[in-house]
């Protein structure tokens, strides 16, 4: 009986042991779950600080010469001289002879014009002499007229006294009228002299113009290069007859090249400084590319070869289909320092990349573009937890953006791709180096 009672006392001890074991096991299983829910997620961050930012934009375009000159024949004739260097692709210097047209006919025209001028000048001298003779003759005839008038008056008195016959008086009156007619004829001739001189002077001017035209035509038989150029095309042969207005060759300027690239209007506007154009005009300042202070660099696509460039103008208008504006840059001396194939010249038709840089903007909060999630960014707050923040962006361009409001200098910005991003989640921030910030797309300082 006592032995049975001892066996029953063992049962509570076993149950108590099982209960202790259950509680220990439950404690160990719940502890990891609590730790897992509060585990900090590692994230890369940058500390947002103000800095100078250079607005940038990149476009692509095709190289073209700044000037293209067409050698158009201004006279007709046979090509009597065509230098061997006049071939498509060849380089020529300013004032080099391109071709010579037969000048024989134009020499004859020049001689004829010179002879016509001598004739017109002789006619004017003859008119001057004629005028002088008329004036001398008029003076004589006026003296004779005066004498005739006095004689007529005397005979009229005598006729009243009856001392001379009426026929004698009639004879004197006729003589006086004839003398008066002579004076009138000379006076009329002198009055016609100015009009005759004007006609002969106009004839002389016409002959002088013909001489100038003949000289010009003679000069036009010789066609030379107006500037250092590369021959784009040659459309003539030696002994070929060319007609006036015919295009004989085309030359591309080697002194300067241009590239026009199309940029979105908003992107181009971000490059420009804030300038009050109306105020400048009122101050007498003429608006121009120099006011924008844009810098540019031209590069061959997928190559390290580049040339400094200048922003010179925009296109005439906005492309209505793409809503872009054409920005034109110029490269001076595009053939200088060429060392093919390592550094080719900036040839016409070459497809290139153009990078624009606007005036630097000071004290900007710049962040990597991928750190912006719509209109939000992720911030590590003072409790090491994620905080979503609404922001207002300023300058936006590929890989970067500036923030006008929503974050303050010194705050920690998450630049990692955080999935999922849960507001209030515990974080383990790791500061990124400047190189890592650039690699993730942050704006570079100028």
TrEMBL record:
Domain named Multidrug resistance protein MdtA-like C-terminal permuted SH3: residues: 370-418
One GO cellular component term: efflux pump complex
Domain Multidrug resistance protein MdtA-like barrel-sandwich hybrid: 72-245
InterPro entries linked to this entry: MdtA-like_BSH (IPR058625), MdtA-like_C (IPR058627)
Coiled-coil spans in chain: 103-144
Keywords, in A-Z order: Coiled coil, Transport
GO MF entry, a single one: efflux transmembrane transporter activity
Similarity section: Belongs to the membrane fusion protein (MFP) (TC 8.A.1) family.
Name of the protein: Uncharacterized protein
Species whose genome carries this gene: Solemya pervernicosa gill symbiont
């Amino acid at each position: 009986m006592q032995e049975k009672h001892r066996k029953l006392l063992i049962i509570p001890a076993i149950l108590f042991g099982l209960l202790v074991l259950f509680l220990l096991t439950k404690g160990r299983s719940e502890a990891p779950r609590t730790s897992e829910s509060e585990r900090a997620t590692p994230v890369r961050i940058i500390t947002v600080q103000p800095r100078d930012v250079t607005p940038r934009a990149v476009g692509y375009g095709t190289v073209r010469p700044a000037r293209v000159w067409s050698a158009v024949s201004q006279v007709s004739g046979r090509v009597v001289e065509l230098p061997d260097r006049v071939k498509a692709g060849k380089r020529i210097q300013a004032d080099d002879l391109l071709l010579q047209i037969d000048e024989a006919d134009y020499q004859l025209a020049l001689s004829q014009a010179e002879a016509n001028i001598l004739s017109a000048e002789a006619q004017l001298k003859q008119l001057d002499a004629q005028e002088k003779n008329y004036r001398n003759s008029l003076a004589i005839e006026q003296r004779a007229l005066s004498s005739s008038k006095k004689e007529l008056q005397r005979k009229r008195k005598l006729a009243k006294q009856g001392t001379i016959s009426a026929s004698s008086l009639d004879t004197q009156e006729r003589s006086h009228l004839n003398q008066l007619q002579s004076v009138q004829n000379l006076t009329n001739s002198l009055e016609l002299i100015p009009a005759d001189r004007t006609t002969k002077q106009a004839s002389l001017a016409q002959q002088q113009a013909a001489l100038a035209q003949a000289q010009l035509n003679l000069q036009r038989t010789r066609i030379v290069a107006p500037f250092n150029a590369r021959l784009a095309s040659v459309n003539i042969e030696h002994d070929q007859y060319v007609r006036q207005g015919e295009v004989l060759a085309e030359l591309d300027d080697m002194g300067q090249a241009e590239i026009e690239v199309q940029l979105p209007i908003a992107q181009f506007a971000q490059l420009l400084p804030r300038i009050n154009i109306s105020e400048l005009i009122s101050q007498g300042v003429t608006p121009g590319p120099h006011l924008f202070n844009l810098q540019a660099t031209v590069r061959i696509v997928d190559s390290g070869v580049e040339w400094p460039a200048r922003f010179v103008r925009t296109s005439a208008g906005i492309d209505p289909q793409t809503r872009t504006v054409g920005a034109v840059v110029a490269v001076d001396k595009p053939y200088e320092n060429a060392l093919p194939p390592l550094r080719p010249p900036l040839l016409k038709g070459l497809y290139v990349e153009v990078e624009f840089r606007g005036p630097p903007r000071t004290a900007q909060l710049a962040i990597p573009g991928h750190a912006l999630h719509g209109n939000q960014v992720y911030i590590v707050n003072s409790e090491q937890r994620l905080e979503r923040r609404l922001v207002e962006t300023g300058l936006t361009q590929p890989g970067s953006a500036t923030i006008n409001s929503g974050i303050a200098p010194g705050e920690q910005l998450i630049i990692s791709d955080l999935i999922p991003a849960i507001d209030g989640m515990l974080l383990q921030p790791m500061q990124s180096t400047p190189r890592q910030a650039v690699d993730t797309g942050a704006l570079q300082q100028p």
